Amino acid sequence: MDTQLINLEIDIRDQYTVEPIYQKIQNELRKYGQPLNWVVSGVDKGCQKIYVKATFLNSELAGARS
After folding, report:
1. N or C terminus: fewer CB in 10 A for the chain?
2. How far is the C-alpha of 52 from the C-alpha of 24, rounded, in Å?
3. Whole-angstrom Cα distance, residue 26 to residue 19?
4. How far apart are CA 44 and CA 22, in angstroms?
5. DSSP per-residue string spanning 19-35
6. Is 54 in contact with 9 (CB distance < 8 Å)?
7. Is the Cα dihedral 18, 19, 22, 28 positive or negative?
8. Is pTM, for the whole model, over 0.85?
9. What residues in the chain have per-residue pLDDT under 50?
10. Residue ranges of domains in the chain
């Protein structure tokens, strides 16, 4: 099983509750396929960004790009 770690930076301006932030994370992850797992690795309150690390199968990434 060949995997790849993807780091995402997600803008959360004007998002003040968990549900819209979670949905925004899911939408970004969907661009790459179905992750094996993902975690919020950091939050920058000043810039209003969330940093997410996600692990994908390389076969998932290839399918998402086509």
Report:
1. C
2. 11
3. 10
4. 16
5. HHHHHHHHHHHHTT---
6. no
7. negative
8. no
9. none
10. 3-65
